[in-house]
Amino acid sequence: MSVLVIAESNGKTVDRGTLSAITAATQINEDISLLVLDDSEEVLKNCQKIKGVKRVISSKGDLEGCLAENIASIIIEAAKDATHILSSAGTFGKNIMPRVSALKDSQQISDISEIIDPHTFVRPIYAGNALATVKSSDKVKFITVRATAFQAAETEGGSANIVDGPIAKTNGSSSFVTRDLSVSDRPELTAAKIVVSGGRGIGSAENFSILDPIADKLGAAVGARRAAVDAGYVPNDYQVGQTGKVVAPELYIAVGISGAIQHLAGMKDSKVIVAINKDEEAPIFQIADFGLVGDLFQIIPELSDKL
Amino acid sequence: MKVLVAVKRVIDYNVKIRVNSEGSAVETNNVKMSMNPFDEIAVEEAVRLKEAGLVEEIIIVSIGNKGVQETIRTAFAMGGDRGIHIINEDVTEPLVVAKLLKDIAIKEKTNLVILGKQAIDDDCNQTGQMLAAILDWPQATFASKIELNNNKLKVVREIDGGLETLDINLPCVVTTDLRLNEPRYASLPNIMKAKKKEIIEIPIADTGIDFKSRLEVIKVQEPPMRSGGRIVADVDELINVLKNEVGVI
After folding, report:
1. Which residues, in sequence order, are CB contacts of A100 under 8 Å at separation 6+?
2. Rounded CA gap, B103 and B109, in Å?
3. DSSP summary character for residue B131
4. Which of A32, A139, A307, B229 is a good FRET partner for A51, with 20 to 30 A between their CA atoms?
């Protein structure tokens, strides 16, 4: 058995989810290769040092936007000796992995949260309201990994060698136009130790900035319930839930969030959950460790003053 | 141009699901079923393209037991034109769905397939990407905006860091994200008209595709319950417990 992990990187660093996928890989077999789709020497150096990685496969060429059509074939080539191909279950992995899996006629296993043995995995279904244990009969397995369910691999201490991988070529059927990324000084939502999250109860885009002082004082990321994103209060990348991001910080502060199951799916593995809501019947209080009932427009300024 | 949209019948998103007594699956008997919400968005987008004069016909496909015909009719009431029901009493895995849709897309000479990005039952998020792969078509997943121009599609996609724009050639596969559109409610006359539209039934065994599952479900369990904690009196108490009791700030 051997494992290939597909790294997601941004020209500087490797994504937190990739480090979780490497930890998952160590539970399958110690022969772990990491495929890096990035021209950056800095990224390659960082990848060499990740604990558990045996070899770094460096693919260059037409990697702009990491278009699925262009990189599927190089993943297949890089994976030719692998029995397990893993990536994080972020939008990068969700986009590319099923394409590769289908080309190899293998039924992908999405978003695993536990590895029982190299053929058997646990994965959340129905927005995490049930856990399915599934056994794959495919010879080569394509797997995406729920980042919050596996610790990040250590980024120091490894000494992988670098080998040249297949070169990406454009397939011509798609082209990258632009990427409009949210710029923030705050930590990334899925990597933050503390997340302050707002729901529709906040009322408007302007009001959403009420969360900023607390987030700044706590060094927290800001997240949102789907309803707040749909209403245009904040951009899509803030969304926590079944179809948005899954987070599991040390502390999750839910502000004006009632606690629909689709939202709970994205945050219920947080270590400590605090709910602030004026409706004491809100379902969020049934899962929160600490609840504070009251008007968020009074509580939040007071909280940020006193922190 | 013809558009293909596949719709899945799932437990309604408002229903609190429970695991059956055998621990083998989620209970679907006597539970309200609806169209997967992402598939509603897919149907709506196809109807809007037709209303804009860019599409002539919308073909609706669903796979499952008899009940899925109701879901196909719901799509008809929104504006779908004709239906294909592939009969399978068992679970159909995404790779099999992709193979079935591939054959239909080729036979019907469709240039565009619009699918929901994931079904809210198995949460797989695979079928669109798999279909694009085996058709050797480009894909645009998690779309929040599409513009169709001269056999090219400009697509804005929702990604973890924000938004991304791609140009892709037709034929292609698009999967929908939440903010692509807001699906319409069907009007009564359209619901009546939907009853008369044609659905072709095809038993899955007649398709020639190997539909055996590759993933054996060993068991299905409820997740560990998180028990509620306590209500604190005020901001001071909240800060105190977070600092001194649990030590997270």
Report:
1. A72, A75, A76, A79, A85, A142, B133
2. 10
3. H
4. A139
Contact A5, A87 (CB under 8 A): yes
Q: Would an 8 Å CB–CB cutoff place B229 in contact with chain A?
A: yes
Instruction: Annotate A136-173 with DSSP letters as a single string.
Output: E--SSEEEEE-GGGSPPPPSSS---EEEE-PPB---SS
pLDDT confidence of residue B226: 84
pLDDT at A214 over 90: yes
Q: What is the pTM of this model?
A: 0.96
Q: Is B110 exposed, middle or buried (0-12, 13-18, 19+ CB in 10 A)?
A: buried
Q: Which residue has the tokens 């997340």?
A: A195
* ipTM tops the 0.85 cut: yes
| Chain B nearest CA to A193, separation (Å) | 9
Structure tokens at A252: 């999750």
Q: In this complex, which of A133, A190, A292 lies closest to B232 when CB atoms are compared?
A: A292
Residue A206 CA to residue A14 CA, distance in Å, equals 33
Contact A292/A276 with Cβ under 8 angstroms?
A: yes
Alpha-carbon span A70 to A172, nearest angstrom? 8
Of A111, A235, A245, the CB nearest to B123: A111
Side-by-side strand order, sheet with B152-159: A174-181, B162-169, B152-159, B139-149, B172-176, B112-116, B2-6, B57-64, B82-87, B199-203
What is residue B19's DSSP assignment?
Answer: B
- Indicate the pLDDT class of residue B225, thresholds 50, 70 and 90: confident
Residues of chain A found within 8 Å of residue B158, distances taken between Cβ atoms: 91, 236-237
CB contact under 8 A, A175 and B130: no
The per-residue pLDDT for range B172-205, each reduced to its tens digit, is 999 999 999 999 999 999 999 999 999 999 999 9
Residue A227 DSSP one-character state = H
